User: Fold Bifunctional protein FolD from Qipengyuania oceanensis.
Amino acid sequence: MSATIIDGKAFAAGLRERVGKLAGEFEAKAGRKAGLAVVLVGEDPASEVYVRSKGKATVALGMESFEYRLPADTPQEELVAMVERLNADPSVDGILVQLPLPKHLDEKAVIAAVDPDKDVDGITPTNAGRLVLGMDTLVSCTPLGCTMILKDMLGDFSGMDAVIVGRSILFGKPMAQLLLAENCTVTMAHSRTRDLPGLLRRADIVVAAVGVPELIRGDWLKPGAIVLDGGINRLEAGPGEAKGRLVGDVAFDEALDHVKAITPVPGGVGATTIAVLMRNTIVAAYRNEGLDLPDDTL
Ligand SMILES: Nc1nc(=O)c2c([nH]1)NC[C@@H]1CN(c3ccc(C(=O)N[C@@H](CCC(=O)O)C(=O)O)cc3)C=[N+]21
Assistant:
């Protein structure tokens, strides 16, 4: 059996096109561009790359990008003061504070300082609560992208057994809520889970985001499963390589022999993340201006 390789880039391109149209209409109606502010503290090179691609995507779709780079030793009060300035700035519709933050900072307090109406990561206490309560809200980009991919592929996935590997606030936890809302039977696995292969053998849908390269082996997966791999792990460079290969949390080549469909790394789930961030930004912009969103295909 040969599996379908889910094309995250194609999905992202379609979404970007719809967002781009809405961004143009927003500018015409609001008399300003929708704006996204990204705050990066410290100098992690991988985070640098993400922040740059976010900025480029924002401008390419006709929105305004505000990027703030703060030194690694920025004090808590300064970071919170910056978030509060962005909360009060009417040209900013979305605020993303790149995570993880340097250890001396209180991440929970920084997140809680973000205005929930500008929280394009969906991780403020208000938005996390809204998600659990089934209220309309902004939702973390990667899990929302995974759900959109599943909806495209399956339509209705009521009653399916879903296993989520990883329980982070940006991925595993919101993913569980989204799949629960789609009437899946949801199991969350994590580093203390005793029998991961045993759980995965029952799973119709597997969503992985633990950051352990190729942790999940092909023969752990149920024949015909759908696998969404949110892991982005860079292996050590081999001889003659400048950079190591990127791999997911699932042993991709092995999985191909077992599953119905799987997302590759790169080009899968991760490739949708920034497009969904653009989606969340334009949705926040319309709401913050009190405008009706003309397109419900977002
Ligand atoms: N507050 C916050 N929100 C985030 O959403 C957030 C964050 N912090 N911290 C870091 C992670 C990581 N992240 C990605 C963004 C783009 C790709 C992406 O474009 N991936 C492509 C390219 C991968 C590559 O070549 O490096 C792919 O998977 O095909 C992946 C991962 C957002 N994150």
